[in-house]
Amino acid sequence: MLRAQQVDVAYGPIRAVQQVSVTVEEGSVTALVGANGAGKSSLLKALVGLVPMHASELSFRGTDVRRLGTLARVRDLGVVLVPEGRGVFMGMTVDEGLEMGRRIGRHREKAGHVSEALDLAAVFELFPNLRERRRLLGQQLSGGEQQMLAVAKALLMAPSILLVDEPSVGLAPKIVRGIFETLDAVMKQYKVSILLVEQDSKLALAVADYAYVIEHGRVVAEGPAEVVRELPQLRAAYLGEVAAVSDHAEAATASTANGVDPQ
Amino acid sequence: MTVFAQVVLNGFVLGSEYVLVAIGFTLIFGVMGVMNVAQADFYALGPFVMIWVSVNAGLGLAFGAIVGMASGIVLGVLYYWLVLKRLGEKNFLAAFIASVGVSYFIENLLTSLVGSQGSPVPGLLPDTFHTWAGVLISDPQLLLLACTVVITVALLVGLSRTSFGRDVRAVAESRFLAAASGVNVRLVMVGSVAVASAIATIGGVLVSSTTLTINPFSGGDIVLQMFVVAIVAGMGSVGGAALAGFGLGIIESMTVQYWGSSWEMVSGLLVMVVVLMIRPQGLFGKKVRIG
Lengths: 263, 291
Fold this sequence. Notes:
The complex is a heterodimer of chains A (263) and B (291).
Chain A lengths: L1 E10 L2 E11 L4 E5 L6 H8 L9 E4 L2 E2 L5 H8 L1 E4 L11 H17 L9 H7 L1 H5 L10 H14 L4 E5 L7 H18 L2 E6 L2 H7 L2 E6 L2 E7 H4 L3 H7 L6 H13 L6
Parallel strand pairs in A: 3-8, 3-9, 6-7, 7-8
Antiparallel strand pairs in A: 1-2, 1-4, 4-5, 9-10
Chain B lengths: L1 H31 L6 H18 L4 H27 L4 H23 L4 E2 L8 E4 L2 E4 H23 L1 H11 L1 H6 L4 H27 L1 E2 L8 H11 L4 H21 L5 H15 L13
Antiparallel strand pairs in B: 1-4, 2-3
């Protein structure tokens, strides 16, 4: 449903993403794994049009979307980003945040892009915690609740594809599992595809159907998740096996120090 | 006591002027991150538009006043498309410098059109004075005060209760997150600039109706106060700017009465320095501003 070919993203002279090609099949979970600063987040932002990109192809269900702005991609096509670091407005109440999402969902229902969008009741069903905190500000929520709010808001926008950026960062494993289970359930019920960026490769590869390994802005490996899981360089770098770890760690640190890390 | 009450009241009247330029200034800063110096010159343009429409074109005072007040909407939209959109969305410093340029441009354009002397402004209301317990206030001053309070409250309610206001707050907190949430960021920006400019032109019309004169530099004369008010309040805080605007008016009015008129400017700057020493983010500012 989403095809991006030879994507380049540059911040001035810094090339965050180079010639990356990614395809997300309808109804699937596709994962982008790789070290911090590898350009995964930049790619997601570029896909919703939040940072400029060059690509030989960027199509959504067969339509070229390269010339569309963020608003059109979000509202008309349902390409919805759940940003990294809790995409929540700190100065807004839970209700206000959810209403922002619901507004897009209603628009998509009316325009006939989706037959039925999630409503507030359905979201509170999925995230009962949020119901009790409706009047609290984003900044008064715990990290887990903020991530739930970000996901809930995105779901209310009636997405066709969710671009989820590092949902596990800084959260307890139990909460992360909860969020992944919710995403999985929603995906099946509402036929949402997911493009997941996740540093925790183990976690990502457990839920993904297909995966790309990205290093220094390039795709270095791809394949069905169960195949990628067994790749030696991935096992070495990210799944805790010793060989070559120092090498990768160094590269990651160096790029952060140079300000390459686009987050 | 009567003198003191009169000084305070004069301070409120003077402060209204500062409030009406500063809340728009701080709104644009909150939404776009741009310090828009030209805000004060829109304040001067409003009365001139009113004079041209009502006196020069002879279309009547009421119609002229409405056009003068509403001219800010058109000016704001134009200003956004011509200047801020091209510079302000990415480069705050360039937009700031450009706004200084626009400010000079407006002042010199007006000077070449009407000369640098003050032009007489037809008052919106007859200059009737009322006395309450020895304190004097005129009808135009009452109108100015009432409108300032109404406009400030309307802006605050609009920001907190309407969906457009929610979008404005979203963009102010994070343009990136707002865009990702399906907010029409550009519409929010142009809308905010239009509202801010309209508040400035309304302010100009109302204030000049109390002073009955306007000159091309009336806006430039209060740029400093506009900065002081917005900075003391905390950049981006509309409610804070309203309080600080009245506060500065009262302080200046007292300084003139009890210290000497040459100290008028000094007192405001002194207050700013003291406030910033204690609270660098301003009285109502957030510690960290993102975006």
